[in-house]
Write a structure and sequence with these properties.
This protein is mostly helical and about 290 residues long. It contains ten helices and two strands, in the order ααβααβαααααα. The chain has a two-stranded antiparallel sheet. Helix 3 runs antiparallel to helix 6 and helix 3 runs parallel beside helix 8. The relative contact order is 0.15.
Length: about 290
């Protein structure tokens, strides 16, 4: 399947998932005029996707590239690297679960081991090479995108923290000193894999800025899926699996939306510091509200 065909199939699947997520919410479909409500939601979903893809086309437009794989097609190797990361994390999760050690902090350590050692092994072995910088953005454009990206991420993080169940408490300095570096490191590792390596390789392979951002964002969302379903699958709890799928669907769509924002920022600035900072800010509110 071509990259364009894969993108079209992914878009249809995401639209179907969005539609299902909306209509399956309690109270959305009433007893009166159900057909009309179904049709209205379908039209709304198609409209939102149409506007979103148009916005992405505009945001990803232009021709400036700041990083290059120097005509080395590394997409297959990077794909295997991502598959290996997922496999290592799942195996580690299964072992920890068997040992009754699957606490959140231990699982976070398992994440860091997989996200650090696997990419390092691929890079040291030469199977994946770090891209080379080919240009730098203008200072005004970089400053503007920093303000937009960090401002949007800070606003979202504040909303996630303030709308968490219960009364949101001001985190202590000790908690901040522990949480902030962990969140930044996790965000940086994910950005290296999905933006610096995967998106740059996709752009080199497809020549399409839109496809590079969109497909890397879908991969970014899919990377988080196995961890969400690991618990019910390992225990063969299919009822729990259905509940997790229903509850996780909005979060999955949101992760792809965040991936699109981060992908555009990487495309427009080539700044790992910026996308890591924005990613960390997007996660910070939820982490402070619910814990690691």
């Amino acid at each position: 399947m071509t990259s364009r065909g894969l993108a079209q199939l992914s878009a249809l699947a995401l639209a179907a998932l969005t539609y299902w997520t909306i209509v399956s919410r309690p109270g959305v479909i009433g007893d009166e005029f159900p057909i009309a409500i179904y049709f209205t939601i379908l039209v709304f979903t198609l409209f939102v996707f149409g506007v979103s893809f148009l916005a992405l086309h505009l945001a990803a437009g232009g021709s400036a590239t700041y990083w290059s794989m120097e005509n080395r097609d590394q997409l297959r190797s990077i794909g295997w690297m991502i598959v290996t990361i997922s496999a290592v994390m799942l195996v580690g999760h299964a072992i920890l679960d068997r040992l009754d050690r699957a606490a959140p902090l231990v699982l976070r350590a398992n994440f860091f081991v997989a996200m650090t050692l696997v990419p390092a092994a691929f890079i040291v072995s030469g199977r994946v090479r770090w891209p080379s910088r080919s240009a730098r953005p203008g200072r005004f454009a970089l400053l503007l995108l920093c303000l937009v990206g960090l401002g949007a991420a800070a606003a979202w993080s504040w909303m996630a923290w303030s709308s968490a169940p219960g009364e949101p408490a001001i985190p202590s300095p000790g908690r901040l000193l522990f949480v902030v570096p962990v969140v930044i490191l996790a965000a940086t590792l994910e950005e290296i894999v999905f933006r610096v390596l995967l998106q740059t390789a996709l752009l080199e392979r497809t020549g399409s800025r839109f496809l590079a951002v969109f497909l890397s964002s879908v991969a970014f969302g899919l990377m988080h899926v196995p961890g969400q379903f690991a618990e019910p699958v390992m225990h063969a709890d299919w009822t729990l699996l259905q509940l997790v799928a229903h509850d996780y669907a909005p979060g999955f769509l949101l992760q792809i939306a965040f991936g699109l924002l981060l992908g555009v920022l990487w495309l427009r600035t080539g700044s790992l510091v910026l996308i890591s900072g924005v990613h960390a800010l997007l996660n910070m509110g939820g982490v402070l509200a619910t814990g690691l």
